[in-house]
Amino acid sequence: TLWIQIKEKFMLNVGDMAPDFTHLDQDGNSVSLSDLKGSKVLIWFYPKASTPGCTAEGCNIRDHYGAFNEANVKVLGISKDSVKRQKNFATKQAFPYPLLSDEAGDTVSAYGAWGPKKFMGREFDGILRISYLIDEAGKVLKVFGKVKTKTHGEDVLASL
Fold this sequence. Notes:
The protein is an alpha/beta fold. About 30% of the residues lie in helices and about 25% in strands. The protein has helices at about 1-10, 50-65, 65-70, 85-95, 105-110, 150-160, and strands at about 20-25, 30, 40-45, 75-80, 100, 115-120, 120-125, 130-135, 140-145. The protein has a 5-stranded mixed sheet. Strands 1-2 form a two-stranded antiparallel ribbon. The chain has a two-stranded antiparallel sheet with strand order 6-7. It is globular and about 40 Å long.
């Protein structure tokens, strides 16, 4: 469909350098992608904290967090939610990984995770459910443009 073509046009591709960023996590700590060089990093973009799809996705990643650690993969969730909303989400769901607040949307845009969406018959722009696996040197290793919220953690691990 047209919107998938638009989405894929703006997404990063395998082999691209992942744009660096620095954001506050749910505890107010500054987190930069460049600080994680030497580890693989899963960056999962999600539309809105504490909504059903985002909760299912985050919990599936949480439930497989031990396997991500064993594979030397750091996990970062990013949305445009405030630090306070990220804190509530992370606390309620017991997420063991940082949720970053990109309220300005600079990183969301840089990663092609902003674009046209449809929900209940209406079209609007918003955060697209996209994830990237970044390699130890900061390059895009894998792109997950079609995310299944209930199995995303397993799907990423199966691709390693």
